[in-house]
């Protein structure tokens, strides 16, 4: 069995629906289809989910959302009519509108994008439709109840071996609709694949797999053929957003590979995400899998004589950040100092209070704050096998007059993280890509 999840761009209009049907029918193993809400048709278009969020905002302020709702109705009816379907959309849309008038929860309202899109796809494929609220179960703490969800999915699959199901939402024990974070349809697909022990989880989108670097910075970056879950986690955390990170765990634990593929280029094999790569299949000439980064970090450095020898000093500092609910990215340290790296946006409103408390609880000789720092991660499962990767990285940045403000590397040597000035962010990624890509791509001006 293959679970195939299709993103919003894959379901934006009737033509995209036709592509999805061709993909599904090309392989009889594709038995579970997970649908996101219809996405943008053009760059200036609106996603259905965004329109539904706007509708709810209008309702909150007692402003008419009739024009927005008409856009939603029109989109779905256009798809239905262009596909020649006889599906009744008018009644469920009228019922939804009445619920909006009476007072509908935001979660239920925005979930109707996936619900209606999946209804259309089920009718087009002539497959059964299964409401995600029937099989995806949340606890009252807002977390997915994996045990109950697994049982419900398996019971449903025994009744209907193949079906279409909406992504992005499920239900609380009392039946109320609960949505996931944006991009949550990835999680739905992962839950389906894990519960049903699928051979493969296909995630169809508008890109042909995962790229070695951000295409907004690198012109035509190399496509990654195979990547491990650990590498993907590192790249995703540093901003390479191709797959919702919470979608990884269910299939990773079940040892089910994920493949990222392009609905508009179905012949492209895409990128396969696996738990580990057979050494016999490794390209030993390629040590770096991907390069990603994020801007706008703040570094707070505390200076104190013999700081490295004092027990509990770091703990006291971290407790200050914990009190303000600030997540710490990195903690580089020296003999007489240590630094805490945090998101600038997260600390902006409380920086001065935090700095004052840090100086007090750590009894610092001095404390310095540096803003406008970017973090760039060079990630690769084979870097540990090759001497001189770190040296080549530092030499490359130095040769291009890019100053390194911070260095961090894990003991497993799967990644090297460097901190550079925000103004050097794009150029640093460009020169590192040129140094480590199998075939160096062209740099954008």
UniProtKB/TrEMBL annotation:
List ligand-binding residues for ATP.
Answer: 5-8, 205-206, 216
Question: What EC identifiers does the entry list?
Answer: 2.7.2.4
Sorted alphabetically, the keyword list is:
Amino-acid biosynthesis, ATP-binding, Diaminopimelate biosynthesis, Kinase, Nucleotide-binding, Transferase
Family annotation (InterPro entries) = AceGlu_kinase-like_sf (IPR036393), ACT-like_dom_sf (IPR045865), ACT_Aspartokinase (IPR054352), Asp/Glu/Uridylate_kinase (IPR001048), Asp_kin_monofn (IPR005260), Asp_kinase (IPR001341), Aspartate_kinase_CS (IPR018042)
What SUPFAM superfamilies does the record point to? ACT-like, Carbamate kinase-like
Superkingdom, taxonomy of origin: Bacteria
Q: What pathway is this protein a component of?
A: Amino-acid biosynthesis; L-methionine biosynthesis via de novo pathway; L-homoserine from L-aspartate: step 1/3; Amino-acid biosynthesis; L-threonine biosynthesis; L-threonine from L-aspartate: step 1/5; Amino-acid biosynthesis; L-lysine biosynthesis via DAP pathway; (S)-tetrahydrodipicolinate from L-aspartate: step 1/4
Annotated ranges, domain Aspartate/glutamate/uridylate kinase:
1-262
What's any GO biological process attached to this entry? Answer: homoserine biosynthetic process
Record bears the keyword Phosphoprotein: no
The residues that hold substrate are 49, 114
* Catalyses which reaction(s): L-aspartate + ATP = 4-phospho-L-aspartate + ADP
**One cellular component (GO) term of this entry:** cytosol
- Molecular function (GO) terms listed? aspartate kinase activity; ATP binding
Start and end of every Aspartokinase ACT domain? 376-436
Instruction: Provide the family line.
Output: Belongs to the aspartokinase family.
Among NCBIfam families, the record links this protein to: asp_kinases, PRK09034.1
Q: What does this protein do?
A: Catalyzes the phosphorylation of the beta-carboxyl group of aspartic acid with ATP to yield 4-phospho-L-aspartate, which is involved in the branched biosynthetic pathway leading to the biosynthesis of amino acids threonine, isoleucine and methionine.
Indicate what this protein is called per its UniProt record. Answer: Aspartokinase
């Amino acid at each position: 069995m293959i679970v195939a999840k299709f993103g919003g761009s894959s379901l934006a209009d009737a033509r995209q629906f036709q592509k999805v049907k061709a993909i599904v029918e090309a392989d009889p193993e594709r038995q579970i289809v997970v649908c996101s809400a219809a996405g943008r048709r053009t760059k200036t278009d609106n996603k259905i989910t965004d329109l539904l969020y706007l509708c709810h905002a209008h309702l909150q302020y007692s402003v008419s959302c009739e024009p927005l709702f008409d856009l939603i109705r029109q989109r779905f009816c256009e798809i239905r009519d262009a596909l020649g379907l006889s599906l009744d959309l008018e009644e469920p849309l009228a019922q939804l509108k009445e619920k909006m008038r009476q007072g509908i929860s935001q979660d239920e309202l925005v979930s109707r994008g996936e619900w209606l899109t999946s209804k259309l796809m089920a009718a087009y494929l002539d497959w059964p439709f299964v409401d995600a609220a029937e099989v995806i179960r949340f606890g009252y703490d807002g977390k997915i109840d994996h045990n109950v969800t697994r049982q419900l999915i398996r019971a449903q699959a025994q009744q209907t071996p193949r079906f279409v199901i909406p992504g992005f939402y499920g239900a609380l024990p009392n039946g109320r609709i609960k949505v996931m974070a944006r991009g949550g349809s990835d999680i739905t697909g992962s839950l389906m694949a894990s519960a049903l022990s699928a051979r493969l989880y296909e995630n169809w989108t508008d890109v042909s797999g995962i790229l070695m670097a951000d295409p907004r910075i690198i012109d035509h970056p190399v496509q990654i053929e195979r990547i491990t879950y650990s590498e993907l986690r590192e790249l995703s955390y540093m901003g390479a957003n191709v797959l919702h990170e919470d979608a990884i765990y269910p299939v990773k634990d079940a040892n089910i590979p994920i493949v990222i593929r392009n609905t508009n280029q179905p012949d492209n094999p895409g990128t396969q995400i696996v738990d580990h790569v057979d050494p016999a299949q490794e390209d030993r000439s390629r040590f770096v899998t991907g390069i990603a980064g994020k801007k706008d970090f703040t570094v707070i450095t505390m200076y104190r004589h013999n700081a490295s020898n004092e027990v509990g000093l770091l703990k006291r500092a971290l407790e200050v950040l914990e009190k303000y609910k600030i997540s710490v990215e990195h903690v580089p340290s020296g003999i007489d100092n240590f630094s805490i790296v945090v998101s600038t946006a997260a600390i902006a409103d409380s920086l001065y209070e935090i700095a004052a408390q840090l100086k007090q609880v750590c009894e610092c000789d001095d404390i310095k704050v540096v803003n406008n720092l970017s973090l760039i991660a060079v990630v690769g499962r084979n870097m540990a096998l090759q001497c001189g990767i770190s040296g080549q990285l530092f030499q490359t940045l130095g040769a291009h007059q890019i100053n390194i403000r911070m260095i961090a590397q894990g003991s497993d040597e799967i990644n090297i993280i460097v901190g550079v000035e925000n103004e050097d962010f794009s150029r640093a990624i460009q020169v590192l890509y040129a140094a480590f890509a199998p075939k160096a791509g062209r740099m954008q001006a």
